[in-house]
Each structure stands twice: as C-alpha cells, then as structure tokens.
Amino acid sequence: MTAPSTAASRRPGVGRLLVVLLGTLAALTAVGVALLWPSGEAPRTGVVAVDVEYVTGTIVSSTVSRCGGENEDRLPDGSIPDSVPCTLVEAEVPTSAEPTGSVEVWAPSTVHPDDATPGTRVVLARYLETASEPEVWAWQDFERTVPLGALAALYAVVVVAVAGMRGVRALVGLAFAFAVIAVFVLPALLRGEDSVAVGLVGSAAIMFVVLYLAHGFSHRTSTALLGTLAGLGVTAALGVAAATAARLNGISTEETYRLAMLTGQLDGDALRGVFLAGTILAGLGVLNDVTITQASAVWELRAADPDASWRSLFRGGMRIGRDHIASTVYTIAFAYTGAALPVLLLLMVYRLPLVQTLGSGEFAEEIARTAVGSIGLVLAIPLTTLIAALVVTAGPPPARHAVPAGHVHGHSHGHVHGPGPGHAAG
C-alpha cells in the first residue's frame, strides 16, 4: 500500500509547469538573439587605419646598452633619469617578411634582458612603407602560443581523466559559451544594443546549451537551469539599481576610458551598459555551480528518504545550501580581490583615506559587482532548492536500494522483495 504522505505529495502538474516555463524562456531567448543579433558593419571608430602586419620571429641576440630616460621611466620621486638600461634585440623573421631575414628592434623597458635570450619567440609589428613613411619594425610582445596551448591541453586532459564523457561535454559547452560571447555578445555591445538585454539573452543561451550538454536532459537539470535563470534576472535588476544609485558610469580605468574614446561614447551610458553586461556574465559560473549542486542535493535526499515531503526536502537542502552560501561568497570576493590586486597595491601607495578609496570609481564598480553577484547567488539557492523539492516530490518515489537479508524488517526468511508494480516503495 502506498504511503499517504507520498501520495499526497505527488503533483504531476509541477513537472509540466516546469517544462512550460523553460519552453517559454527558451523561446524568448531565441527571439532575443534574433532581435539583438549584430548585423551590418561595425561602427567606425577614431582609430587611424595603418597597414601593419604582425610577424612571429625568433631572437638571435640581444645587446644591453644605455638609452635616454622617458616618461615611463619616471622614478618614485617624480624625476626622469638621464639614462636607463635598454635592450636591442635582433630577431630572425620569415624571409618573405624581410629580404635580410632578420631585423633589430628595441625591447620595452619592462622586458628584462634575461627574458630576451636567443631562441625566444617574439611577435613583431611591421608597419608597411607608405608614400610618406618608411617601413618600421617594432616590438609587440612575446609569443606565448606554445606554453598557453600546453596549459589548456593539460587542463582538458585533467578534466576528461577525472570526469570522463561528462568532462568532454563540459569542455564542448565551454567552447560554445566563448563562441556566443565572441560572435554575439561583443559585436552586439559594440553596435550599441541594449547591454542588459544582450547580457541576459547571451547568458541564457549559454546556460540552456551548457547545462543540458554537461548534465543531460532531466528534471534535475531543468530545475537547476530555472534557478540559474532566476538568479541571472535578480543579478540584472540589482545591477541596474546599483549602477544608477551609485552613479557608476563604467569609465574607471585606462582601458574603459580608451574604449569610450575609440567608440565615441564618452557620455557614460554605453560604458555603464558594458559594466552591467559584465556583471551578469561574471556570475554565470558560480551561479551554475550552486544551482546544479542544490538540485542534486535534493534529489539525493529524496533517494535516501522516498517518503519525505517537499517541506522536509527543502529544509534538508537548505542545510546544505547554507554551507554552500558561506563558501561561494568567499569565492566571489577573493576572485575579484585577486583580479584587482594591482589596483589595491596602487591605492596603498597613494595612501588615500579608506572611505575615499572604497568610493573611487574602479573600487566602487568591483564592490557593486561583488555585492550584486553575491545577492543573486544567495537568492538562487533557496529558490532552486524549493523548485527541486516541489519537482522531485511531484513524481513517483524512487525505488529503495535492496537491503541485506538479515536486516529486512518483517521478513524472517531472508528474501528481499523489491518494489514491483504492486508494491509500495519503502
């Protein structure tokens, strides 16, 4: 006979409602991608177009000498030294790029001579000859394809070795996510589309594919997806409110100011939108982590106690969720702190008052981004847990694992009856 509490907890309509909600959100996401899809030419910027090629070469030799000091060599007391060490590098380049097969360039003052050793691969900029200017070669950067490629390959190997095919699917999902950002999000932002809409639509498109690809199609995954999308909505709404209240215009660093100048958007509205879109995207990873973990926790609690009510499952899931909240809040805060470490050191050098430091543009953005992302994350945990508890109790209880013969209550001959068609689970 079926336990009354289990029968009463079944709500078949909950599962169908979940499918309808996600189907509607998927359709809205598809419509949003179609409406916001970047088309036509990108807006022209104030950058002067020059004929430049980037050529990979190999250092043959390097010579250290003395050069006149520049503004970038300014000392802590504000003075510019008369001379500073400088490194002249001879690099071998493809013969198609230079008849002689080698060129000489000055390395930046930030490049230590020990780093510019023979055999080091570097990227050089070749400014082509024009009617008024001769051909010029300049140092661009070190060539890092091999070490970074090796590191990425090691990461992929470790993921696949530990997670198996699920790790492979997760890596495919990661590649898809970066493709969405490169093909849709960034071009749409450059073309002046609504930044919050672009961030939400792009993030939703990523989550729909990544979650189902990595975890498969199930009510458990759908529950985590719905919780993730709800958390993204909360993050977007709070981000808009925080940016407006704190008057965050998105122009707080040299990079964002340069972007504003090059795109002709110094009014701050566009850069504020970039800040908001970045806030939404920044929360994707941790938000996805906590929602899938909470959904899995509720399903495991249900498997351990098939007769548990949704209220009992919610309470049990939240006991796990509170521990998760404590750890993930630290994760977000330390991630932003690590990224902003040079700024922290610079502010320590400036010795500004603490209140003024925290209220400065770049610091204010990081505080707002951390707080908004953390609030969205924290609220997504009880919401996901509640949805999971309602969904998992809407269906039939899972079968209990078989118990050893000597431990079966009510049977004396050691025969274990599984929950067949005519038996109640548990």
Automatic annotation (TrEMBL):
Protein name (database record): YibE/F family protein
Stretch forming the signal peptide: none
Query: Which regions are flagged for Gly residues bias?
Result: 417-426
Q: Which residues cross the membrane?
A: 17-37, 146-164, 171-190, 196-214, 226-250, 270-287, 328-350, 370-392
Start and end residues of each stretch annotated as Disordered: 401-426
Keywords in alphabetical order:
Membrane, Transmembrane, Transmembrane helix
Domain of life from the UniProt record: Bacteria
Task: Cite the InterPro entries for this sequence.
Answer: YibE_F
